[in-house]
Design a protein that fits this description.
about 190 residues, alpha+beta, Lipocalin, eleven-stranded antiparallel beta sheet, 3 helices, 11 strands, about 40% strand, globular, Secreted protein
Length: about 190
Amino acid sequence: MKKPFLLLVLVAFQFSFSQTETGSKQFWDKLKTYCGQSFEGKITAGATADDPFSGKKLVMHVRSCEENRIRIPFFVGDDKSRTWILTSHDNVITLKHDHRLEDGTPDKVTQYGGTSSNSGLSDIQFFPADQETCDLIAYASTNVWWITVDEKSFTYNLKRIGSDRVFSVSFDTTKPIKTPEAPWGWKQ
């Protein structure tokens, strides 16, 4: 009599645990499945003729996956200055943009981004501009970034609230490509 009851309690505990896993945890776990892989992308919104991203090869490389930090260099042609840094703390994810000069030193405009206001969903996380961003880049104080992940893609997005500014780049995660060289500021 005790064994079936104990088994039932264990099954119920496992079920309740799996049902309470947050959207941010599921999102984080999905991102980690890309670790070590690189993907080519294309601009899906916001491209203009004078946009510095237009006509360039766009590559993301999920280069570093730690327990609470994922670093994703984003290359625009030969420009290897950008790395998206995602950190997770207490079921909330923060996105920062690490910009480096070619010699590896930090750019004067770096570490801007934002923190999710809640745990989000398993396939999308929003990052409204934080105070550091507002202090660094006043015009970006109304920025909202979001990242979506699904079975076929990773998409990075930006919308500047109150303006026409929107930008999206989508990466096909079904077709990994050759890993690029290290981004600026990284040792192999």
